[in-house]
Amino acid sequence: YNVDTALYIQSVGVIDKFRRTNVNEIRYHTSAALAYGYKNLKYFTWITPVERSEQFTLAIISPEGEKTDLYDGVAQINRDIKKVSSILGKLDAVEIYHNGRQDASTKMLEPGWYVEATDKKDFLVSLMVDRNTKRNYLMVVNKNFNKDTTLALKLNGIDSLMDVTSGEEEEVAIADGTIQCELLAGGFRLYRLAEGVSLHKEYQDADANLALDKPVYSNYSRGNDGYFNYKAVDGNRVSTERSRGWRYEGKGDEEIYIMVDLKRAVDINRVDLYPVSIGDEERIGQYFPRKFTILYSTNGKDYKKILSDTWESGKELSYSFDTVKARYVKIRVDEAVKVSDIYIAEICEIEIYNDDGTLPKYQKVWEKDETLKTEYNVALKKRVKTSTNLEAPQWGWMRKHINDGMIKATNTHSGWTTQTGRHMTDPYAEEWVLIDLGEKFNIDTVVLYPRQDTGYYFPKHLVVEVSLDEKDWTEVYELKESGAVSTIARVLKFDAVDARYVRVVSKEMTQVESSPDGYLFQLAEFEVYRTGRQ
Predict the structure, then answer these.
(1) For residues 453 and 504, is the Cβ–Cβ distance under 8 A?
(2) Cβ contacts of residue 252 below 8 Å, gap of 6+?
(3) Alpha carbon distance 509, 522 (integer Å)
(4) Which of 42, 349, 439, 479 has the smallest set of CB atoms within 10 Å of its CB?
(5) Is 1 a residue whose pLDDT tops 60?
(6) Closest CA to 402 of 392, 413, 388, 411
(7) Which superfamily, per CATH, for 374-530?
(8) Contact predicate 491/382, CB 8 Å
């Protein structure tokens, strides 16, 4: 994104707070930073600080201006970086994989990728692309900062490599599809691929919602209390304390906007906007822009108008239009809400689609169906069957909790969960929960409550099926979501149908990062409503 990015490299300690780093640790810190695409590395600190509230250890230079024991090692690190600086300055890190021990949020190197590990040694590999020539490079970093190592790396689909670590080109010996990569403790090695060889996969959106988790820019963001730019594309259509959306506060004498970068130009024909919904129903959209314009651009400079509209309470803010090709989609606030001497504008969620007519319609998440009363819930305390189950009453997980009428989470009541540890790598494994209504009912609504303490493990993709005999099943509803964490109930309405058995089948489960439980399907409550409600 052409944003200057700097990183401090720790080269000093503070007595009784954090220890001083050694040369090998500094080398690893710089190597990893370069592999992740940082261009501006600054040592904290070069000269030892004095007369400060904290008591610092020696840095690279002593208070008297003398070289410390770190100096020669750091100087060599700098020389090694300078050898490849003219190359690295033009490279973007586009894919990064780790091998060995897994740290939180890191993506592990998988068998079959272009570079494959032959053992469990700790290293990372960064696929880098020259932003001008599109030439591909590979940077390998030794994550072991205690000792030098030699990695045996298997190459898949790579016939030749040039080692440019020294600043000079040296052809790499490939024997039986394997190279030997010698690395200092915490050190790196940079390889250049042959011209025309590209390992970078074409970008794939994670969801039909093209805006989901994309970069977001605005002229102003409040930046606290759950209001952040990225919260407007996190998949939460209903505001929570942690995710309220985007909020502008200011004098209103500037262009007020929030803009989504779709990462490349794609076809779009629909934009959905959701108002902030913290508070009672009357306050929904309290600060939604009173007038606004949706614009698009392919280069981030020249924008064209798609449409303009005005706010009305309860209005469906879904806009379909002739297909355009866009990378940047901007919501410009033409009239904000004035409160005393400041202007305020809020948007909870922005969704962008290329809708072929099969995508779900806009969800009026603020609307409540007053007819969904307990007396019409025909699933309450009926017989339940599940594909798998974990009976853990000490944690509040029991099959009978799925339709006992209790939604709120307590220390002894969480709901129902599939068996933990069963699906560690496969989110598409089929898991289901079935309720036997005891007799035939005419039904038209199913309500599913995620676990109410966190909202975790609600499926990204599920279907509702009905049957009269528990043998022949008919699908009556399909729900596809982004996987965003939310405790909001999913109210699934469909054409009235006769049914005795109602089953919810997960087609794609979710997981919690760094959790040892794998992919799960969890619910706090499963309700089924008959027709004829008043």
Answers:
(1) no
(2) 336, 338, 342, 343
(3) 9
(4) 439
(5) no
(6) 413
(7) Galactose-binding domain-like (2.60.120.260)
(8) no
Which two structure tokens, joined as six digits, stand for 463?
A: 């279907």
Concatenated DSSP letters of 42-59: EEETSBPP-SSSS-B---
Q: Please state the domain extents for the chain.
A: 1-200, 216-353, 374-530
Q: What fold does the segment set 1-200 form as a domain?
A: Immunoglobulin-like (2.60.40)
First to last CA, the chain: 55
Q: Which amino acid is at 311?
A: W
Query: Which one, of 279, 194, 192, lies nearest residue 244 by Cα?
Result: 279
Whether 1-200 and 374-530 share one fold: the answer is no
Take residue 526 and report the two structure tokens written for it.
Answer: 């499963």
Task: Give the residue among 452, 454, 402, 429 at the shortest CA–CA distance from 509.
Answer: 429
Q: Which residues pair with 185 in a beta bridge?
A: none
In CATH, 216-353 is 2.60.120.260:
yes
Map tokens 């798998």 to a residue.
388
pLDDT digits (tens, 9 = 90+) for 439-470: 999 999 999 999 998 889 999 999 999 999 99
- Give a three-class secondary structure readout of 299-326: CCCCCEEEEEEECCCCCCCEEEEEEEEE
